[in-house]
Specification:
Shape: elongated
Structural class: mainly beta
Number of domains: 1
Strand order of the largest sheet: 1-2-3-4-5-6
Distance between the termini: 25 Å
Helix content: under 10%
């Protein structure tokens, strides 16, 4: 059975994910790290076929020694057309060595494909 975009009972899976990234600084200044990392855990929960709520928590070390960013974020993604997605989110920093107290993000994603 095929389902349409408006069918509220279509299968849309919940997802958990883990992201990890490592950066190497090939020519660091004395105040910079040789290596940095980002590690995070996230969750996405579909509300409908077109609307998803997301949340994540991550830690990212900065290029400058002794600085890092711990952040908890929540956001949404909304499918406007099959090629266009709008997103928005906000995050709060925590921990004694954080570099950001608050973050707000908005995004537009558009796939360039033919024949659309």
């Amino acid at each position: 059975m095929l389902t349409s975009r408006t069918d509220s009972y279509a299968y849309v899976p919940r997802q958990m994910h883990v992201n990890a990234t490592w950066f190497h600084n090939f020519d660091p200044l004395p105040s910079e790290r040789d290596d940095r990392y980002l590690i995070g855990v996230g969750y996405s929960q579909p509300v409908s076929n077109d609307f998803v709520v997301t949340a994540d928590i991550f830690r990212e070390t900065d290029r400058e020694k002794g600085r890092a960013n711990n952040m908890v974020e929540a956001g949404t993604r909304f499918i406007v057309t099959p090629q266009t997605v709008l997103s928005a989110g906000a995050g709060i920093g925590f921990g004694h060595d954080r570099t950001e107290d608050f973050r707000v993000m908005v995004g537009v994603q558009h796939a360039l494909s033919f024949p659309y």
